[in-house]
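ok so for the tutorial part 2 we go from a plain amino acid sequence to predicted structure tokens. step 1 is just haveing the sequence, like this:
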Amino acid sequence: MTTKPQSRPACPNFSSGPCAKRPGYSVDALKNGLFGRSHRSKLGKAKLKEVITRSRELLGMPKDYRLGIVPASDTGAVEMVLWSMLGARPVDALTWESFGEGWVTDIEKQLKIKDLRVMRAPYGQIPDLAAVDFDHDVVFPWNGTTSGARIPSGDWIKADRKGLTICDATSAAFAMDLPWDKLDVVTWSWQKVLGGEAAHGMLALSPRAIERLESYTPPWPLPKIFRLTAKGKFSEGIFNEETINTPSMLAVEDAIDSFKWAQSIGGLPALKARTEGNLAAISTWVEKTPWVDFLVEDKKIRSSTSICLKIVADGFDKLPVDQQWAAVKKIESLLDAEGVAYDIAGHRDAVPGLRIWCGSTIERSDVEALLPWLDWAFAEASKAAVAA
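step 2 — the prediction. this is what the tokens look like for a chain of 388 residues:
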């Protein structure tokens, strides 16, 4: 019999997006926000510039890359690139979870790129990276947010590639090493690793990506919100203090606070260490826990931010999928009712299981406090299933 633990996580927010705010966060962090003022004012532009500058510094981005704030979160950033740049070359699209699959749908069904190779892998794995053709444009996530599988390094990407590498890095940026010299386009949002607010995306472009924008015009019409050029020239303003549409200055101030916190604890190395420490805590627990395992079996590609777990108790895999999800939802509801963990059921498109966000704003002590509660909730859910 598993008894109810006594200690609880100080912060029960383990959602994979929007993600937990930084430790010690208070809305007082917004007191210097530029509210009720135009984002085009001198002060408004300074705030936007600060977000861009602090992002570049924290990530160690090359000086000749451009970085801009764009609408509609990471999704908006990826869509802008797909619609603005694809079609000049054949495309290899890598997918091993739901968001990568969404980009495949856009490329195949909406843009109707005929010369397309889709390279798929099941949840918990990644495609054969050695099979990628770098004469093609290559579209891929760095970290599979809904599967917990990540690319281990940039060694597979050719330096002398002819196509562009287009990387959705939303649950990797600020938590994992990104090989900037191997990536031509990188996108992310504020709502993931640094716990910012949703609705805004970031778009980083290499000189090669900018050259594509200025040398290629796609055959389909582009809505204003997707346009990165004007009269055939790269729109520099978007990648300085101007934005395509009106940003939330509250969200901007919140993002600035998260960057200040990140720098105060030691920058990118400290952010990476925090999330890797959280993964280590869960790994130690999984090794001694018979009812659960990582969805990703290969340690080299196991995510340190979106950690996905599968239930391996005897007979669980023989249950109909709807019953498996019912058990997962029971575990989630038990933890929710106790105020221990919120929103930790796996993504609806994924394999039935748990997904625990362990990005850089999550304290290892909270992860360690959560783990005994997972044992308790599983035991309680199992008893309920037997009684039924």
